[in-house]
Design a protein that fits this description.
The complex is a heterodimer of chains A (385) and B (313). With 385 residues, chain A is mainly alpha-helical. Chain A is 68% helix and 0% strand.
């Protein structure tokens, strides 16, 4: 009876999961080829003009098409979703202040890379440097990741003793604190005026930049998608290791995990730091592309949107959360005409997902693939004591 | 499995604790929750290689003393020592690494993980790979010949590829992460066979039948390579046949060289398998000794059956 219900349930569960199952059943080399094709497609995507999909207007005057720009936003949101998925989906810690890490990543390239930032000006004065001097983009990347890692640890150290709702409230506060500090410290962040002239890979934004210019977003997208692919690879490695199992164990039953030799605090802190670093990387790319940031871009709405991406997509499943991120980033751009109602639409979508698919669009599947080849062996084993 | 244990009800190891070294020592442990005294100056010792039963009526403090031993609760006074080292004050994962493992009275598996993965989490407690190790895999170990990638293909590009992989593994070694993963999987499967549930290795723990879940808990506890395994009412909800199987399993565990601490309600089961018994009542130890002695002890009988007015003195 239960089995019957379950199969019916499974049939109702979408195409997407069955595609995943079929994919997992393929031989290894075919999976590799398929992945290669997918990666190639992702890189080709901005050049592709799919009618309907790419009808995106940037402004009503020029009526231009910003397909690559929208893809870039999708890519950095996917990065955010992957990072938040480590925290929420794998380690089971509800983090409502993820925007804080995003902001720290964005501000670290702004503060160290832009000639207009008070920090760079101060360094110029102290060390007698020319007025055009600023920290190189590549070093800013390093700074951004290190700073967000540290901030993740600093936030996690005192707060990870809290569980569930309490942690959510503390992190919510953290996100707001970062934004308010950025707005109020005029001497450090220029306050509400924001920071302009944030560099890209080719240096500060100017008309002479050949590749990473302000107009053409395609190179930016390629940069972002490269980051996404690298991070997917890295997080997958973690997921399928002792670390990933420890995260799951802590998520499922923290006390039992501790008794089985997992130190929950250590692994939760790692999850927090890794999630923070990914958020920081995403914020870093966002600031580089935008060339200008101010505190209003990091409000709490965005934090909720990030959690929504994870929940809608399917918490714990990287493909799922990526899909959630792409949907929540793309749809408002596609339907700009009714963009005023976007929060209403998100709310509605969340409610619908909660009712129809509480596990998310693509629910997290237990990863039994790596153990499949052992299944036969296990069945041969005598089943008695 | 074999007939070596089926007929023997009496334990074959002598019941006298005399020469055997003390593994765990519970020394004057008192635990208060506010005004409630959960444990009152409990003293007992567990000797290496024995099966010790911890019995008592409901609310006697059996599970509480378990929790003190495994670091879940900190005693108000007194100490627990494991092979001379203090357990008290250490965190649960440290205690697990010292060699104490346990199961839970109300089953606490990781429900979404497969049976195999549940056990692998246990084996992980002896592994070292952390985030950098899993990410970059730079810590290389020289593999033993049987751990090298095998060249299986007859010919062609696949064979060349396998040869290249084998040569690489020979020159650069394999990452500790990979070797640990493989060892963990093999060991977990072996443990699942040991407790007799290998046929459901790939099922999510929450989908397993009740008896399988109980045994999976034992397998997971064994995976942490303990010296002492504490079983908290492992036979709860079992029928007589299942209980008999469990007895056999417990003896098998002891024969592997482990020490077993058993909490149990079922007197017959406890009498049949244990070498010694400690009886608790209202947080106090009221008796200790061989099963036969304990079952004759009037205090124990009173505790279990209620006492008559003349015995009360």
């Amino acid at each position: 009876m239960i089995d019957k219900i379950r199969t019916a349930d499974r049939r109702r569960v979408s195409l997407l999961t069955s595609v995943g199952d079929r994919f997992r059943a393929l031989p290894k080399w075919q999976r590799g080829l398929a992945l290669l094709a997918l990666v190639a497609f992702l890189y080709y995507l901005p050049l592709l003009g799919i009618p309907g999909l790419t009808w995106l207007r940037t402004d009503s005057i020029a009526g231009g098409n910003n397909w690559a720009g929208v893809l870039f936003v999708c890519a950095i949101y996917v990065l955010v979703a992957i990072g938040l998925n480590v925290v929420v989906g794998l380690a089971g810690l509800l983090d409502l202040g993820y925007i804080g890490f995003f902001a720290i990543g964005a501000y670290s390239v702004a503060l160290f890379g832009s000639v207009n930032s008070p920090v760079v000006k101060w360094i110029q004065r102290e060390f007698d440097l020319p007025e055009t001097w600023a920290v190189t983009w590549a070093i800013c990347l390093f700074i951004a990741i290190v700073l967000t890692l540290i901030s993740g640890v600093l936030l996690g150290w005192p707060t990870l003793r809290l569980r569930g709702d309490y942690l959510a409230i503390v992190t919510l506060g953290f996100g707001e604190i970062i934004r308010i500090v950025a707005r109020n410290s005029n001497g450090l962040t220029n306050g509400p005026q924001g920071i302009s002239a944030i560099p890209g890979p080719e240096g500060p934004p100017s008309a002479e930049n050949q590749v990473f210019g302000l107009i053409d977003a395609k190179p930016w997208y390629w940069l972002a998608i490269t980051a996404v692919l690298l991070m997917v690879f890295a997080v997958r490695r973690l997921e399928h290791s002792r670390v990933g199992r420890a995260w799951l164990a802590v998520r499922e039953d923290e006390d039992a995990a501790a008794v089985m030799g997992v130190y929950p605090f250590k692994f939760k802190l790692w999850a927090f730091a890794i999630g923070a670093a990914l958020g920081g990387l995403s914020g870093f790319l966002f600031a580089s592309r935008n060339a200008f940031i101010d505190p209003t871009q990091f409000n709490v709405n965005l934090s909720i949107l990030f959690v929504a991406m994870v929940v809608v997509g399917g918490s714990g499943n990287m493909v799922g959360v990526s899909l959630g991120a792409v949907l929540l980033a793309y749809l408002p751009e596609r339907f700009r005409e009714i963009a005023d109602y976007r929060w209403l639409a998100f709310g509605l979508a969340m409610v619908l997902v909660m009712i129809l698919r509480p596990q998310g669009l693509i629910p997290s599947r237990r990863r039994t693939r790596e153990l499949k080849d052992r299944a036969a062996e296990a069945e041969e084993a005598p089943a008695h004591v | 499995m074999s007939d070596e244990t089926t007929g023997t009800v009496a334990p074959k190891i002598p019941t006298q604790p005399g020469p055997r070294p003390v593994l765990l020592e519970v020394d004057d442990v008192t635990l208060r929750f506010g005004g409630v005294v959960a444990l009152d100056k409990i003293n007992f010792q567990i000797h290496e290689g024995e099966i010790l039963g911890l019995i008592g009526p409901n609310g006697a403090g059996k599970t509480t003393s378990f929790n003190v031993m495994t670091g879940v609760y900190k005693p108000t006074s007194g100490a627990v020592r494991f092979r001379g080292e203090r357990v008290t004050g250490r965190k649960p994962h440290q205690i697990s690494r010292m060699g104490i493992s346990r199961t839970f009275q109300n089953i606490r598996l990781f429900p979404e993980m497969t049976a195999l993965e549940n056990v692998i989490v246990g084996t992980d407690s002896r592994h070292k790979t952390s985030v950098p190790g899993a990410l970059f895999r730079l810590y290389r170990v020289r593999p033993k010949p049987e751990e090298l990638p095998q060249v299986t293909a007859e010919s062609g590009i696949v064979r060349t590829w396998q040869q290249v992989r084998r040569a690489c593994a020979k020159t650069f070694g394999l990452s500790r992460h990979i070797l640990e993963e493989r060892a963990a999987e093999a060991k977990a499967l072996e443990l699942l066979r040991f407790v007799g549930i290998a046929d459901r290795a790939n099922d999510a723990a929450r989908n397993l039948p009740y008896g399988y879940q109980r045994r999976l808990e034992i397998a997971r506890a064994l995976a942490t390579e303990p010296k002492l395994i504490c079983l908290d009412e492992p036979a709860a909800g079992f029928n007589p046949a299942e209980k008999e199987e469990l007895l056999t399993l417990i003896r098998k565990i002891r024969d592997k060289g482990l020490t077993v601490l058993l909490i149990e309600h079922d007197m017959r089961l406890v009498m049949g398998v244990t070498d010694r018994i400690v009886v608790l009542e209202f947080g106090r130890k009221i008796a200790e000794g061989a099963p036969a002695e304990v079952s004759r002890n009037p205090k124990v009988i009173a505790a279990y059956l209620g006492e008559s007015a003349d015995d009360a003195a």
